[in-house]
Automatic annotation (TrEMBL):
Pfam families: NUDIX (PF00293). Its EC number is 3.6.-.-. InterPro entries: NUDIX_hydrolase-like_dom_sf, NUDIX_hydrolase_CS, NUDIX_hydrolase_dom. This is NUDIX hydrolase. Residues 44-175 form the Nudix hydrolase domain. PROSITE patterns: NUDIX, NUDIX_BOX. CDD domains: NUDIX_ADPRase_Nudt5_UGPPase_Nudt14. The keyword Secreted does not apply. One of its GO terms (molecular function) is hydrolase activity. Its cofactor is Mg(2+). SUPFAM superfamilies: Nudix (SSF55811). Keywords: Hydrolase.
Amino acid sequence: MFIQPSPQKGRILAATKAYHGYIFDVIQQTIATPDGLTVERDLIKHAPAVAMLALTPTDQVLINREYRVGINAESFALPAGLMNPGEDPVQAARRELEEETGYAALALQEMCAIRSSEGMTDELVHLMLARIDPAKRTATHFDQDEFVTSQLVPLAEVVAAVKDGRIASAQSVGAISYYEAFIKGAHQ
């Protein structure tokens, strides 16, 4: 079978930290690849993260609107955030959901984990399915440098926004697509 993990890894011959930041570092590497090449690559070492598809019992999805520097504009996406050291994905999802949106997860389930661009970053985002009660919301606790607006949106509208590109973040597209393909149909 072709789609099987390989035990072979590249051998790091040299590594130099070119940049250290709050969320990521840039490492310049010389690597001996498993297929015999020697290559120079820049690696963005990124903290692990979680993204939550938070659903109400009536299939309302919690959507965030937030300024994002990568597009220099507001983005529509699922709630997401970095995992703290020592947290597992469930703990991080519970904390991030409450801090960013004020909603507490009644139940949490990991759907899958995704990588946004394996050619340049080791970022791993755990996609979580969260069940929430829209009537139970507390105060938000944003990080000092963030401001997020959250709203419940019907799932059909969210799927349409993914289809037409209004929602384009990799973790949001991945979580919504995974839910639609593997979970939603199994419960109908």
